[in-house]
């Protein structure tokens, strides 16, 4: 089935796909995982995984989309009759993510407005973030972010998504590089006369920390890096299948996949260079253990410690983070919109309008999950979470690894890797990493995805406990 909508060309597609991939996961989750998982050790493992697993999953999704010309639900059924359920399962991922992504976007928007108004001293207080999200009025920031997302998707693929990505992505890349360079120039001293510099922080970031490394810890770091791939590359959630369906046949998918890998991984690495040296200079090693609260608690404290320069850097940082969150949020809503248009045979503007209303309500409910609708639920992986954490766990920790297991089996063993290779070889007959793809999709990826699924659901620890 041919679509009326499409990207204007390779640059438009790569920027839109990279915009989807470059999100909050790169600017927030990646740096704290690096700090937690041995610095350069995590970096090495992650880059290897990007070039193998990331390449395999990204290639699969984009090729499926372009070859079928359809979004996830219809695409899997077209590939193999009887596999529509996998498409429905894939559709559920963006459907769940969309309930809370605008909430996180709203948090970022709040911090941007705080810095814009010059009240950045308030954001550095210990309880500022908690006070904000537990205040019911915080819902308005999420609703504004959701409305902006809906407006851009409403305007279509080339006129909305591609135009936004072409404007936002170059600015984002320049800002990331600029702040990363500035972070390396930072220095501070304490009462003892010891001096910490940004270059010292860079060493902490890049040098592999092998202390206390065991097989169990190595496996955990590898699984952390693998889970980051899902966040980072937007794979196994139908987004890249949808974007692939908008790619014209003359576009070289080999180059596109490589360019998306480079941009996405490059931004993640630069994000670490932005954040870790700055945290190290002003808070030392202890500040780098902030974990998930790094963006909204540790960083504002660091920016405040910098003085006037910190105000400017903080303002720019939350601006680029808002851009990254917006491009990712757009891709999530677009995946849902495209599937609904195909299933219900409706036009874009009506579909987007209805979905925007639905997700405005969902955004409000999730945002109020820290106040009006507060709950605490014990999750299978052992953590305790609120409404946002529940949606995140189901979509990212349960469904995405499960979808990857079935999709690699479908491509590797049922329709065969040749089905993907044929699309990757169009139009110039080249698929430079064909042999690597065949090995990964048939043998390596299914096995590792099963392990990741068992680990993310807490089943792996139980199985190991039984064996032990």
TrEMBL record:
It is a multi-pass membrane protein. Pfam families: SNF. Keywords: Membrane, Transmembrane, Transmembrane helix, Transport. The keyword Glycosyltransferase does not apply. It comes from the Bacteria. Signal peptide: none annotated. Coiled coil: none annotated. The chain crosses the membrane at residues 39-65, 86-109, 138-155, 167-186, 225-246, 267-289, 309-333, 354-373, 393-415, 436-454. InterPro entries: Na/ntran_symport (IPR000175), SNS_sf (IPR037272), YocR/YhdH-like (IPR047218). It is found in: Membrane. CDD domains: SLC6sbd_Tyt1-Like. PANTHER family: TRANSPORTER (PTHR42948:SF1). This is Sodium-dependent transporter. It comes from Roseburia lenta.
């Amino acid at each position: 089935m041919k679509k009326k909508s499409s990207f204007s060309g390779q640059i438009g597609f790569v920027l839109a796909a990279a915009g989807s991939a470059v999100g909050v996961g790169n600017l927030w989750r990646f740096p704290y995982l690096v700090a937690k998982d041995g610095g350069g050790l995590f970096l090495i493992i992650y880059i290897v995984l990007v070039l193998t697993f990331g390449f395999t999953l990204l290639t699969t999704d984009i090729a499926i989309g372009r070859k079928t010309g359809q979004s996830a639900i219809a695409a899997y059924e077209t590939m193999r009759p009887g596999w529509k359920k996998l498409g429905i399962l894939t559709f559920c991922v963006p459907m769940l993510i969309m309930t809370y992504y605008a909430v996180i976007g709203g948090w970022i928007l709040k911090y941007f407005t705080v810095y814009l108004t010059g009240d950045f001293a308030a954001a550095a207080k210990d309880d500022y973030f908690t006070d904000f999200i537990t205040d019911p009025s915080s819902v308005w920031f999420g609703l504004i972010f959701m409305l902006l997302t809906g407006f851009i998707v409403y305007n279509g693929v080339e006129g909305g998504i591609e135009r936004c990505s072409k404007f936002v992505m170059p600015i984002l890349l320049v800002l990331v590089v600029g702040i990363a360079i500035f972070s390396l120039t930072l220095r501070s001293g304490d009462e003892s006369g010891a001096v910490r510099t940004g270059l010292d922080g860079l060493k902490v970031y890049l040098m592999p920390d092998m202390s206390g490394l065991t097989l169990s810890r190595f496996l955990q770091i590898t699984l952390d890096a693998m889970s980051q791939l899902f966040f980072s590359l937007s794979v196994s959630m139908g987004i890249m299948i949808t974007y692939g369906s908008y790619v014209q046949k003359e576009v070289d998918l080999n180059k596109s996949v490589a360019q998306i890998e480079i941009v996405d991984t490059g931004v993640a690495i630069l994000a670490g260079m932005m954040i870790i040296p700055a945290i190290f200079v002003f808070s030392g090693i202890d500040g780098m253990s902030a974990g998930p609260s790094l963006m909204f608690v540790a960083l504002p404290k660091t920016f405040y410690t910098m003085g006037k320069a910190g105000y400017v850097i903080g303002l720019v940082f939350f601006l680029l983070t808002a851009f990254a969150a917006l491009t990712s949020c757009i891709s999530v809503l677009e995946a849902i919109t495209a599937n609904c248009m195909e299933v219900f045979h409706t036009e874009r503007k009506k579909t987007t309008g209805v979905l925007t209303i639905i997700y405005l309500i969902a955004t409000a409910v999730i945002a109020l999950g820290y106040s009006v609708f507060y709950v605490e639920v014990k999750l299978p992986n052992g953590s305790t979470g609120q409404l946002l954490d529940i949606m995140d766990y189901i979509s990212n920790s349960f469904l995405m690894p499960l979808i990857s297991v079935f999709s690699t089996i479908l491509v590797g063993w049922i329709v065969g890797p040749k089905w993907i290779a044929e699309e990757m070889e169009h139009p110039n007959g080249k698929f430079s990493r064909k042999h690597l793809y065949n090995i990964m999709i048939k043998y390596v990826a299914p096995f590792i995805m099963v392990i990741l699924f068992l680990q993310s659901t807490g089943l792996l620890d139980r199985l190991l406990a039984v064996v032990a």
